[in-house]
Write a structure and sequence with these properties.
heterodimer; A: 303 residues; mainly beta; 2 domains; twelve-stranded antiparallel β-barrel; 2 helices; 43% strand; B: 181 residues; alpha+beta; Lipocalin; eight-stranded antiparallel β-barrel; 50% strand
Chain lengths: 303, 181
């Protein structure tokens, strides 16, 4: 009799555990069956890798204020505290019109340049493999510099102050730490330095971020300008832009400490008009700080 | 002896029949969590919770996708998924348990019950015991409950710089309308 009782108790206990597992299994099954397409989020922490913009955009109704600062070149010597005596900065703001479309404006001290852009997220990487492997954003930027023309250029009209950039930002988040972005770029300069320089130039920009902790990452960026397009000599000679960054995220802020050989932070300038190489010490230390403000609450999943 | 085996067999078999046919399910259950500190209020709500209630043995199971939690501030949502619950690694949170107390789910009425079970979040399983109300009405069961969870119990690490902005204990509210399958 005792034996039967134990058998019964054993079966019922077993059964209860099995039943709970069955129940859980069936909710899990219906959860997977009902799952909608899931999009990858957080490909990059910030809107910038260093100088290049990322595929990320502020959410609908979110305002992102960006303060970008570059000191002078490290090779300017101890007298200038290795560049810290000088400053170039850009103040920018990005606003999410909807989750896929954002608009931005900025003003930088380099050539007293205004810039404005529209960014549209065309494709979104999906979490399920084999659906959409990359996120693609289209970016159109216009820049307008207001530094007074010198004597020889004073006859030029206003239109020569405009440059246009069109970029296709293609990024993939390979895993939670590594993301890579490749950006074919087209730039139109209304004014170039000599007639040998082309007004329409092409470049390929690439960048990556590798997380070292959950809230920190190391970034690298290289902007390759295809040769024989901008050929006029400059002093120091023209160079491709190479940058390193260190992202530190603290709640609503992202701090980025950067080293770059580009002084400007506007596409048409840092891609085509970077002069001086890392090897010769033309390295600008600087930082980007961004702060996110929510102007209106968002009520649907970020897509 | 044969009789006894038969009895055991029928008991177990009977239970499983009972368990299979008449489950109450919901695919649009609500779970929200709320954190209040002097510095910041955080809330997130998920309206796509899957839940099953077996009226025979009063067992329940819940499952939800962590990415289904909607925050009024999108950046918090990104941080929640990326830095706290790591929803790429641990996409789901689940609960299984059993309700006990005076109840007759075949009859209309409101029953105060105790729920005991295990919750799994961020790859960590913790026991959970809470009170809940089950209201049987028009062939549906409305279940409501609330309890508190500590992020640290689930190995969710919160850095010092934001520790004061996130409550030590997070309020969780659950509301499920179960319908018969």
């Amino acid at each position: 009799m005792k034996k039967t009782f134990f058998t019964l108790a054993f079966f019922i206990t077993c059964f209860q555990v099995i039943a709970q597992d069955k129940l859980l299994e069936s909710v899990n099954d219906s959860l997977s069956a009902g799952a909608q397409t899931e999009y990858v989020t957080g490909t990059f922490k910030a809107l910038y890798i260093v100088n290049m913009k990322t595929v990320e955009a502020p959410a609908a109704g979110a305002l992102n204020v960006e303060f970008q600062h570059r000191f002078g070149t490290v090779n300017s010597g101890a007298y200038n505290l290795f560049g810290l005596d000088f400053a170039t900065f850009r103040l920018g703001a990005d606003y999410g019109i909807c989750d896929r479309l954002s608009i931005g404006i900025g003003r930088s001290s380099y050539l007293k340049t205004f810039d404005g852009y529209l960014k549209y997220k065309l494709l979104r990487q999906t979490a399920q493999s084999g659906r959409m492997p990359v996120t693609v954003s289209l970016l159109g930027t216009t820049s307008y510099y207001t530094l007074h023309f010198d004597q020889s250029e004073s006859a030029l009209s206003n239109k020569y102050r405009f440059n246009y950039t069109a970029q296709m930002l293609i990024a993939r988040k390979f895993n939670s730490s590594l993301s890579i972005e490749l950006t074919p770029t087209f730039i139109h300069y209304n004014l170039v330095e000599s007639s040998a320089d082309k007004n329409n130039v092409f470049a390929l920009c690439g960048g990556a971020r590798m997380k070292i902790t959950k809230r920190m990452s190391i970034n690298v960026e290289y902007d390759y300008l295809f040769p024989n397009q901008l050929v006029s000599t400059t002093d120091p000679p023209r160079s491709n832009s190479l940058s390193l960054g260190w992202d530190i995220e603290t709640g609503g802020h992202v701090f980025q400490l950067v080293f770059t050989n580009s002084q400007s932070m506007v596409e048409s300038q840092y891609i085509g008009q970077t002069v001086g190489t890392w090897g010769k010490g033309y390295i600008y230390f600087g930082f980007n700080i961004s702060r996110n403000f929510n102007l209106k609450p968002h009520d649907k999943p970020k897509t | 002896m044969r009789l006894r085996i038969c009895a055991v067999f029928f008991l177990v078999f009977g239970f499983s029949i009972n368990g299979k046919c008449q489950n109450y399910i919901s695919k649009t259950g609500f779970i929200g969590f709320y954190s209040k500190t002097p510095l910041e209020d955080i809330k997130a709500e998920n309206n796509q919770v899957y839940a099953i209630l077996d009226p025979g043995n009063h067992q329940i199971a819940f499952a939800l996708l962590l990415k289904g939690f909607i925050f009024p501030r999108e950046l918090m949502q990104t941080h929640f998924n990326e830095n706290y619950v790591e929803s790429d690694k641990y996409p789901k949170a689940t609960f299984t348990g059993v309700c006990s107390g005076d109840m007759d789910l075949a009859k209309e009425g409101i029953y105060q019950v105790v729920i005991k079970g295990n919750i799994t979040l961020h790859g960590v399983t913790q026991p959970l015991e809470t009170t809940a109300a089950l209201e049987v009405k028009n062939g549906q069961i409305l279940g409501t409950s609330s309890f508190r969870l500590k992020p640290e119990d689930f190995q969710i690490r919160i850095p010092g710089i934001v520790r004061d902005k996130i409550a030590k204990e997070i309020d969780v509210r659950v509301q499920i309308t179960w319908m018969r399958t």
